[in-house]
Amino acid sequence: MDEKQKILLSDELTKQLVNTPETGMGYHKVDIYLKNGEIIKNQIVLNCSILSLEKSININIENIEKLVVL
Amino acid sequence: MIRKLRTSQIQELLRLRETGMGYQFIEAETGYYGTKNKYLVLNSQMIIDDTPQILNEVKNVFKGGYRTMLFSASEVELKNIRLVENLSNYRVKSFSASASAQTGAIHQQVKYADGVEIFTRLSAFEDDFRVDTVNKRLVAGSFSTTFEDYQYCKKNNINPVERYALPNDEDIKWVFHVRPLKTDTLQRGIVEPANNQNGGGIEAYFANGTANNTFLEKTAY
User: Fold this and answer.
1) B13 and B86 in contact (C-beta within 8 Å)?
2) Mean per-residue pLDDT for B91-104?
3) Which comes out higher in pLDDT, residue B15 or B176?
4) What was the pLDDT predicted at B100?
5) What does DSSP assign to residue B34?
């Protein structure tokens, strides 16, 4: 499996995911909406709290506007 | 026809490779006259005759619940078991297509728990956020597998990341056991291929979570 970077989500986003049905056991598949209008599609969040991203994707956690669970 | 194997024969099936995740295609003899037939074997335990009705029978297993169907199935003894590449009425492609399209828990009928069966949630994280340890329950919209399937996975040294089609690049380290009440509802299915994994394990989806005090314990995997 490709190496991924792990980004810890804010408590607010974690709380949102805890209250949203899972995609599968222990994970959500999400689209990430950034404050600059960019959308990073089809990403994985583990345990409602850890965003697993390709190392080539460079984002700052503070720039996440919202997560939409697929 | 759906039947089940005796424990000794389950061990025999476990020594043979799987045709796909969670199933085997076999040929074997039954009965006094040694009639040779082909069968689909689920979980090395449940056998389904290779007849034109086989697809419907597999669907009935997914709908009715593996454990329920197993309970009502009669035992059969097979002789001269050998693996085969295909069944006459159930090609690998149709099985795979069926599995990927319809077997997931969220596609299955909502049923009440029996108040006895234990479900197990596997996690790489000790502080699994979907296990509410304050109220001792699973939160709404959470998946698990059955305790029985977890045991099968562990006993046979199957990688749970593959069996439950998880995206994890970390190992499963923790298990959370839950016994839902009779008032809790769930949907039970077979894990569909996802995240470059085959799936094939049993999954249960608790759309409304489970009642308070249903979380039993957390143990190491």
Assistant:
1) no
2) 55
3) B176
4) 45
5) T
For the stretch B46-49, contacts whose Cβ atoms lie closer than 8 Å and that sit 24 or more positions apart, written own/partner, are B46/B2, B46/B3, B46/B4, B46/B5, B46/B70, B46/B73, B47/B2, B47/B3, B47/B4, B47/B5, B47/B76, B47/B78, B48/B1, B48/B2, B48/B3, B49/B1
Chain B contact for A44, CB < 8 A?
yes
Q: pLDDT digit string (tens) for B186-220?
A: 999 999 888 888 888 999 999 999 999 999 999 99
* Spatial separation of the C-alpha atoms in residues B49 and B97, rounded to whole Å: 19
Find the radius of gyration of the CA atoms of chain B. 18
* SS3 (DSSP) at B129: coil
For residue A43, the SS3 value is: strand
Q: What's the mean per-residue pLDDT of chain B?
A: 86
Whether pLDDT at B99 is above 50: no
Whether B121 sits inside 8 A of A14 (CB atoms) is no
The upper half-sphere exposure of residue A20, i.e. CA atoms within 13 Å in the direction of its Cβ, equals 19
Q: Can you give the residue range of the structural domain that contains A9? A: 4-69
Alpha carbon dihedral B23, B143, B61, B78, in 10-degree steps, equals 40
Which of A4, A12, A25, A27 would you mutate first to test chain B, the one with the most B CBs within 10 A? A25
Model pTM?
0.65
pLDDT the model gives residue B55: 80
Number of domains in chain A: 1
CA proximity to A22, closest of B127, B130, B194, B203:
B130
ipTM computed for the complex: 0.83
Q: What is the mean pLDDT of residues B105-126?
A: 94
Residues of A in contact with B168 (CB under 8 A): 26-27, 46
